[in-house]
Amino acid sequence: MAGSSLRQQLDQALVAVGVLRSENEALRAEVIALRDRVTHLLTEMGRDSSNSSAPPSRDGVDARKKRAERRAEAREAKRAAGKQPGAPGANLKRRRPDLTVGHEPVCCKGCGADLAGAPVVGEVLRQVIDLPAVEPVVTDHVAYRRRCACGVETLGDMPPEARAPVCWGPEVRAFAIYLLVRQHLPVERTAELLADLLDAPVSTGWLCRIQLEASGRLAPFMTELKAQLRRAPVVHADETGTQVGVTKHWMHTLTTNLLTLIAVHPRRGVEAIRDIGVLPGYTGTIVHDGYSPYEIFDAATHAQCGAHLLRHLDDVGQAVAFELWTSQLAGILIDAKNASETAAERGAPVVDDVLAAAIVSRYHSTLDVAFALLPDGPPPRLRHTGGWSVAQRKAWNLAIRMRTGADDMLRCLVDTRVSLDNNVAERALRMVKLHDLWAGLDYELRLEGGPREQRIRCEGGRIIRGRGGTRGAGPAGGIALAWCGGVRCERVLSL
């Protein structure tokens, strides 16, 4: 009886141990999953524009402070303050004077004698450049009605700017559009500036109305702009969200070093890109950040932004296990950039075959190392399952993306016109985000219901200037096109 009782107690103890062991394994798995979640959340909290695709406008105070400190250190390391050796000087130069004012000494500073009639033995010139007081010029247009001998009365024609009994002229309208669209002043501040500095008190409703009118008058200009973008060998594309009233819309840009088109659309993806009408049928190279709708346009060649890849590599490299191969891949991308820029300076259309082959070989060898450090993929669809950590998932996703898109990511090696980054497009959209911060809403996008072309932002100054300097117009030349019916479009755009 005693032996049987001991056996039962032992069996019960073994069952209890088995239950406890199962519970322990379940708790261990739960702790690992929770630890992975905490790691993931801490990583997400530490993400900013330096290690993700988030725009700098979303960075917190600490991230902005660190970025400012890094830039200050880089500037101090690269150059001293002030004018750099070899840089052209920038100072005010004398101009032909409109007015000369003499200043005579009254008495001698030595003995106090009167200097009236004393000989002039020298002079000192100083020139002051200033603005005259700005006052509006009011013109009365009088159309006379004359009666012919036949008895018919004929009224003279009014000029097109005299559209109402009292109205603002084309210079005021063009200047207001320039302030709103080129300088991104909010509507109320634009009205305040016009009233205070130009004695031209206008309403905010009038400013919104003339903006829509100007956009419609730029239709021939926009048509020619899109045609030139379609003919460009390389186009940079990007998009960013903005607010129209209470609805989220998307600002899309298609940009070269000289031409910029920015369009607003309620959609971000393929529908918007097709409605804008440049990329369908485009056969050049599209530089973008890897957003999948661009890949649908398979008649074009594609290049992915290396700056985004460098940020993703920096993010994945935060895990010690992946630090080596991510830093090596980042160096390879920089080497590809430098090789492409050096070849472009020599006028070569492609990087030297031997150098390009070496870079491509290093690229794929490093990716082989990355996959050797990872479990057999693909990872499970749900996070924190299947034994994959968040760091491993991110590393696998990035590595597989860089392997399948290797040609797009190293496009600059086979075409030196293609830059490794997409900064041209991102710079075009930067003012959109800054204006959202300044004004809260995009003022020119509040009026809806018109044709889509009328909701395209007028970036005339940017279109004409580009990097090649102003072409055929002054600072507001592109905006002034709105008030001449597009007559000058062909001359300004024949680059």
Describe the structure.
With 495 residues, the chain is α/β, with parallel strands linked by helices. Among the domains are: 157-275 and 441-495, no CATH class; 306-421, no CATH class. The chain has 16 helices and seven strands. The chain has helices at 2-45, 61-78, 170-182, 187-198, 204-217, 219-231, 270-276, 306-316, 323-345, 353-372, 390-404, 406-409, 423-439, 460-465, 477-480, 489-493; strands spanning 145-147, 153-155, 234-244, 247-255, 260-265, 285-288, 301-304. The strands form two sheets. It has a five-stranded mixed β-sheet with strand order 5-4-3-6-7, with helices on both faces. The protein has a two-stranded antiparallel ribbon with strand order 1-2. The radius of gyration is 33 Å and the shape is elongated. The relative contact order is 0.12.
In a nutshell, what does this entry contain?
The chain is built from 16 helices and seven strands. It has 495 residues and is α/β, with parallel strands linked by helices. α3 (170-182) crosses α5 (204-217) and α9 packs antiparallel against α10 (353-372).
Straight-line N-to-C gap: 107 Å
Which segments are poorly predicted (pLDDT under 50) over 5 or more consecutive residues? 440-495
Shape field: elongated
User: Helical amount among residues, as a percent range?
Assistant: 40-55%
Radius of gyration: 33 Å
- The count of DSSP E runs of length 2 or more, i.e. the number of strands, is 7
Give me the strand/helix succession: HHEEHHHHEEEHEEHHHHHHHHH
- Overall pLDDT confidence: 82
SS-derived structural category: alpha/beta
Largest sheet: 5 strands, mixed
Count of alpha and pi helical runs: 16
What percent of residues are in strands?
5-15%
Strand order of the largest sheet: 5-4-3-6-7
